[in-house]
Amino acid sequence: MPREELQELQLERLQQTVERAYHNVPHYRKAMQEVGAEPGDIKSLQDLQKLPFTYKTDLRDNYPYGMFAVPLSEVVRIHSSSGTTGKPTVVGYTRNDLNVWSELMARSLTCGGATKNDVIHNAYGYGLFTGGLGIHYGAEKIGASVIPISGGNTKRQVMIMKDYGSTVLTCTPSYALNIAEVMEEMGITPEDLKLKVGIFGAEPWSDNMRKEIEHKLGILALDIYGLSEIIGPGVAIECPAKQGLHIFEDHFIPEIINPDTGEVLPYGSVGELVFTSLTKEALPMIRYRTRDISSLSLEECSCGRTHVRMKRVSGRTDDMLIIRGVNVFPSQIESVLLEIGQTEPHYQIIVDRVGTLDTIEVLVEVSASFFSDEVRRLEELEKKIRGEIETTLGLTVKVRLVEPKTIERSEGKAKRVIDRRKI
Questions:
Q1: pTM, two decimal places
Q2: Do residues 400 and 333 touch, judged by C-beta distance below 8 A?
Q3: N or C: which end of the chain has fewer CB within 10 A?
Q4: How far apart are the C-alpha atoms of 275 and 252, rounded to whole Å?
Q5: Which pLDDT score, from 0 to 100, does residue 375 have?
Q6: Which residues contact 32 (CB under 8 A, 6 or more apart)?
Q7: Which of 114-118, 155-159, 380-384 has the weakest average pLDDT?
């Protein structure tokens, strides 16, 4: 769709969304009145900046249904977060919301190369988490065969992929590596499977981790992005060109802001992603602060799609570590480890405070063949990893090599950071 036509559609849908939120959600009406804004003020897409941000805490403060813009009788699906760090965030869908979500996931899978002839092995979790069901309904919409296996029991997953002829794998990237490891233990090679592509998301991952997955599983690995507050998976996805994730702008308006000041930044700038939904009925989101760090690009993609692209999420503003005044993202350390090789793609970062000084220790799993090697070579490897990380971060770090399979495996999102500081 030409951008001019797209922007006309966006403005029409934005005006409808703001109108609906203002009149049906007390939180939005109060927040807009506090900044002196009304629905009639939205006369151009730039006027979006007149509206206040929405935060995760707003959903928690209005728990469970206070942010819904329709009566509960019109809500046909409810998902929520786990609530491990506070009250769960609850999201609802009308029947039309589910239709839109299915359509967006069908677009996403098609963008990744899936067709009705594929067998999609869906190892995202089913339940309150949006990943499993989001992928599921999109896959059914394109007519593919879906295996709703969810996470866990990895040996059985490998057996089913082999016996049922799975061609597309969907799960978190860390779980894809876990599957690759179990395949190796079972003596099954990528050539024994029919997998051709993997669609991975729900946690930040690096390009080096992509290479590792592609090498170990013999597939094309693509990044998908979404979050429950906006709709779930299907907000954006990479095409095989792997030059950024296409955002479905006819349903969402993305912004990049300075996370400290809230100032909207120009295309190409790195900052915090903010999304406004344009078609959600049950839970409209206006300028939702995702805390995810990325940038936007309008450059033409070789695939021909015209929607704006976002760079792979490099971390989050709220899990970004500040060590002795330096911003540290786990993905920076991951990238170094995978670049060096001779280690497994499993690591853990332990942050502590000794006196007034923050310390950072990186536990790194060494491959079985290398771990049995002589002590001198292990010391050299440890020194090399430490040097590369210190050069990347500009910080002194402690590196500890550990035996294979000593770091806990993930069947969902990997726990990369243990922050023991009491501040």
A1: 0.84
A2: no
A3: C
A4: 6
A5: 81
A6: 22, 38, 51, 52
A7: 380-384
Pair 244, 312: CB distance under 8 Å: yes
What is the residue whose two structure tokens read 């839970």? Answer: 283
Instruction: Look at residues 394, 378, 401, 385 and name the one whose alpha carbon lies nearest to residue 339.
Output: 385
Please tell me the predicted confidence (pLDDT) of residue 73.
Answer: 98
Average pLDDT over residues 282-290: 97
The mean pLDDT of 173-197, rounded to a whole number, is 94
Kindly list the distances between the CA atom of residue 211 and the CA atoms of 74, 112, 282, 345, 365, in Å, as whole numbers in the listed order. Answer: 45, 17, 39, 11, 18
**Residue 344 vs residue 99, higher pLDDT:** 99
Higher pLDDT: 71 or 344? It is 71
**Which of 312, 148, 124 minimizes the C-alpha distance to 232?**
124
Give me the amino acid identity at 87.
K
Tokens of 356: 């007034």
Whether 146 and 139 have beta carbons less than 8 Å apart is answered as yes
- The residue written with tokens 């990049």 in the block is 256
**Tokens, residue 119:** 């067998």
Residue 210 to residues 73, 215, 220, 227, 303, Cα–Cα distance (Å): 43, 8, 9, 21, 20
Query: Which residue has tokens 């005044």?
Result: 325
Phi first, then psi: give them for residue 131, nearest 5 degrees.
-60, -55
Q: What is the DSSP code string of 10-46?
A: HHHHHHHHHHHHHHH-HHHHHHHHHTT--GGG--SGG
Distances (CA, A) of 105 to 17, 69, 199, 283: 22, 23, 11, 18
Residue among 54, 19, 50 at smallest CA distance from 286: 54
Counting residues of the chain whose pLDDT is more than 90, the rounded percentage is: 70
What does the block give as tokens for 203? 């946690």
Average pLDDT for 293-320? 89
